[in-house]
């Protein structure tokens, strides 16, 4: 066994405090009874949790967020899965360009992308707000889908596919029967990462939302501009719980193999 | 008609032509191996036959049908990969059953066929395991079973044993030969292990730079390599360049600047311009006492330059007027000192005329 290093231990603890401290503070303040954020709270109550459901907008925007994240995810998968497969399995002219093209939404600041999308696509073609949101979110999810799936594919030996084909399987059958089951963990990781990216997104959504249609993060942003009570802290706690539940679900499904093995 | 014929086939990657003018015929039930140095195009040839690669020119006939453009999954060939390429997410049973299920067989038939083939490769009882839970040799046998169970018209092996240790390699190659003969399957086998190819094949094809230099029965190649490349590849280390050849019946006399060499004519007489003789290090006889009759035909005098211990023999590097020769002598005799003058004798039935 290695000797434990006290300096290293202190740094580790400090890092954890730095990362988890704010979350702990938010959690505690969300249970405060005062009508302003205070830490530590003088008395405890569940009032602000109740307030989330009584305030207009949170529930409906939550629904919009979920719908956009899931539908956008499907669209991104429909484009991203074949794209990742093509990019990792075939050599063709312009491959490098396409690779960078699909990753570019990660590199361009969200504000720029959102503004450009609004001005040159959404307004030009007169898309509805919902459609615009969906397009924007599909675009920001695409790089996650492609990157994570392509890296799983890179770890999957091509000769295994050739073996299936030589046994009589068509390319399509090979993809569904052999490739997909073997990149399952990467696929699920890609879906989850993309979902979280979309669900928490502000910078694109802010351009795509409009009268009547908004996402939860945008609604929260508007709320804190007007009120300073712990409702936002309470929502944050619920969102953390949602993320944790998602992680737990994936862990049960995969044994977290993707995150620990690769 | 042969079962398989490649006629004037060329294959390349982009601008690079790898196979130039390949001609190969394989008869039904034969095991033909492709042998050659790394990069000579063995895998390329096999992948062309399997259908993973397309011929640029030429024709591929199988069973009298033109297969040149038939897609891989319609060819009904089995392919055994160097790295086994088993399906990691399927059990051994499902791996082997994969090809049968695609052929829409009923459950009972599939079960029976899988069990029978696992019996043949000595793997019954392993049905429920996953590939990761098997040893290398067992995985290789699963790969063979998976390719065999569809009763392929042709079985292709690409260095199937190169990831196994020496003992297992020998056991497995005997296994492959046994199964191939038992089921009467036609097979093409790629390897760069000479002994492996010679021991299991009906015919061996020696490849060099994308061309078949010689294809023949193992013994014929071993005794009578046709070209200098083939000779060198199968262990002929010594070459004599001659100036003239005279044929007397079934013997030939080759003249050099330092003496004459008499040989038996090998089957398939070479053209008059073939003036090279080849011989293995272990076939040259070495004499320390210089008799009067040791100055005649097939003798050469030289000096030992270097002596290397090879285990069962010593190898001497001998400098002669015709160049350097490598000669092996049993290590049971006293080794000869460097600088000793000796006589080399080249038995006429061991000297081979090559192109
Ligand atoms: N995908 C490819 N793209 C370009 N060139 C290739 C490709 N695959 C093989 N080659 C070239 O084709 C030639 C023949 O390759 P091949 O794999 O057939 O050799 P091999 O005889 O199987 O060698 P080894 O014994 O090392 O497996 C080599 O010079 C190799 O560099
Ligand atoms: Mg090879």
Compile the SSE list and pairings:
The complex is a heterodimer of chains A (262) and B (355).
Chain A: H1 6-30, H2 47-54, H3 58-89, H4 95-107, H5 110-125, H6 129-154, H7 158-166, H8 171-182, H9 184-199, H10 205-208, H11 216-226, H12 231-254, H13 257-261
Chain B: E1 4-13, E2 16-26, E3 31-35, H1 42-50, E4 57-62, E5 65-66, E6 77-80, H2 92-102, H3 107-120, H4 136-148, E7 154-158, H5 166-183, E8 187-191, H6 194-200, E9 203-208, E10 211-216, H7 218-223, H8 228-233, E11 238-241, E12 244-248, E13 251-256, E14 259-264, E15 276-279, E16 285-287, E17 299-309, E18 313-320, E19 323-330, E20 341-345, E21 352-354
Parallel strand pairs in B: 3-8, 3-9, 6-7, 7-8
Antiparallel strand pairs in B: 1-2, 1-4, 4-5, 9-10, 11-15, 12-13, 13-14, 15-21, 16-20, 17-18, 17-20, 18-19
Helix pairs in contact in B: 2-3, 2-4, 3-4
Bound molecules: adenosine-5'-triphosphate (ATP) and magnesium ion.
Magnesium ion is lined by residues 42-43 of chain B.
Shape annotation of chain A: globular
Q: Largest chain interface and its two residue counts?
A: A-B, 16 and 26 residues
Count of domains of chain B? 2
Low-confidence segments of chain A, given as residue ranges, are 258-262
SSE class of chain B = alpha+beta
Query: What CATH architecture of the largest domain in chain B do you see?
Result: 3-Layer(aba) Sandwich
> Any idea what the shape of chain B is?
elongated
Structure report:
The complex is a heterodimer of chains A (262) and B (355). Chain A has one domain: MetI-like (MetI-like fold). Helix content of chain A is 77%, strand content 0%. Chain A contains 13 helices and no strands. Chain A has helices at residues 6-30, 47-54, 58-89, 95-107, 110-125, 129-154, 158-166, 171-182, 184-199, 205-208, 216-226, 231-254, 257-261. The longest helix of chain B has 18 residues, at 166-183. In chain B, strand 13 (251-256) and strand 14 (259-264) form a beta hairpin. Chain B is of the alpha+beta class and 355 residues long. The two termini of chain B are 29 Å apart. In chain B, strands 6-7-8-3-9-10 form a six-stranded mixed beta sheet, sandwiched between helices. The chains are: A mainly alpha (262), B alpha+beta (355). The A-B interface holds A 157, 159-160, 162-170, 173, 178, 181-182 and B 50-52, 72-79, 81, 83, 85-89, 98-99, 102-103, 143, 146-147, 150. Magnesium ion is lined by residues 42-43 of chain B. Adenosine-5'-triphosphate is lined by residues 13, 16, 18, 36, 38-44, 192 of chain B.
């Amino acid at each position: 066994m290695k000797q434990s290093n006290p300096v290293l231990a202190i740094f580790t603890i400090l890092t954890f405090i730095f990362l988890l401290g704010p979350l702990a503070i938010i959690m505690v303040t969300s249970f405060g009874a005062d009508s302003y954020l205070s830490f530590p709270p003088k008395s405890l109550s569940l009032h602000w949790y109740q307030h989330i459901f009584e305030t207009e907008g949170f529930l409906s925007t939550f629904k919009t967020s979920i719908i956009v994240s899931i539908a956008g995810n499907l669209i991104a998968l429909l484009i991203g899965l074949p794209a990742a497969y093509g990019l990792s399995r075939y050599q063709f002219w312009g491959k490098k360009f396409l690779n960078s093209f699909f990753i570019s939404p990660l590199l361009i600041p969200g504000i720029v992308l959102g503004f450009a999308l609004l001005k040159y696509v959404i307004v030009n073609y007169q898309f509805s707000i919902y459609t615009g949101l969906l397009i924007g979110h599909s675009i920001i999810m695409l790089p996650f889908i492609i990157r994570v799936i392509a890296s799983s594919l890179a770890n999957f030996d091509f000769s295994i596919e050739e073996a299936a084909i030589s046994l009589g399987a068509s390319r399509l059958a090979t993809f569904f029967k052999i490739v997909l089951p073997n990149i399952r963990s990467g696929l699920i990781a890609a879906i989850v990462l993309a979902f979280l990216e979309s669900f928490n997104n502000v910078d694109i959504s802010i351009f795509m939302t409009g009268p009547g249609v908004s996402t939860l993060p945008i609604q929260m942003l508007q709320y804190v501009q007007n009120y300073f009570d712990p409702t936002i802290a309470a929502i944050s706690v619920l969102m953390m719980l949602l993320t944790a539940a998602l992680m737990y679900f994936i862990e049960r499904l995969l044994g977290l193999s993707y995150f620990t093995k690769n | 008609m042969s079962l398989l014929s490649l006629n004037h086939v060329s294959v390349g990657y982009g601008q690079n032509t790898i196979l130039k003018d390949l001609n190969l015929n394989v008869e039904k039930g034969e095991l033909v191996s492709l042998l050659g140095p790394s990069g000579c195009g063995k895998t390329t040839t096999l992948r062309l036959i399997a259908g993973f690669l397309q011929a640029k020119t030429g024709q591929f006939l199988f069973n009298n049908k033109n297969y040149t453009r038939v897609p891989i999954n319609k060819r009904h060939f089995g392919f055994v990969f160097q790295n086994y390429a088993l399906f990691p997410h399927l059990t051994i049973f499902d791996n082997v059953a994969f090809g049968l299920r695609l052929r829409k067989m009923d459950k009972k038939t599939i079960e029976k066929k899988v069990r029978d083939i696992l019996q043949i490769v000595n793997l019954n009882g392993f049905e429920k395991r996953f590939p990761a839970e098997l040893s290398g040799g067992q995985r290789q046998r699963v790969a063979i079973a998976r390719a065999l169970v569809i009763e392929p018209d042709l079985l292709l092996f690409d260095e199937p044993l190169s990831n196994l240790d020496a003992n297992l390699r020998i056991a497995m190659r005997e296994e492959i030969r046994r199964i191939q003969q038992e089921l009467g399957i036609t097979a093409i086998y790629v390897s760069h292990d000479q002994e492996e190819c010679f021991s299991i094949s009906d015919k061996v094809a020696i490849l060099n730079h994308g061309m078949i230099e010689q294809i023949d029965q193992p013994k014929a190649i071993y005794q009578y390599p046709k070209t200098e490349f083939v000779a060198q590849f199968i262990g002929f280390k010594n070459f004599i360049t001659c100036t003239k050849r005279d044929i007397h019946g079934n013997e030939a006399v080759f003249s050099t600047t330092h003496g004459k060499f008499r040989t038996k004519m090998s089957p398939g007489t070479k053209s008059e311009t073939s003036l090279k003789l080849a011989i293995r290090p272990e076939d040259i006889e070495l004499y320390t006492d210089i008799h009067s009759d040791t100055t005649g035909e097939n003798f050469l005098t030289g000096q030992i330059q270097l002596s290397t211990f090879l285990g069962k023999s010593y190898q001497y590097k001998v400098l002669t007027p015709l160049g350097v020769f490598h000669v092996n002598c049993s290590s049971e005799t006293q080794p000869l000192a460097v600088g000793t003058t000796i006589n080399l004798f080249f038995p006429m039935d061991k000297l081979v005329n090559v192109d």
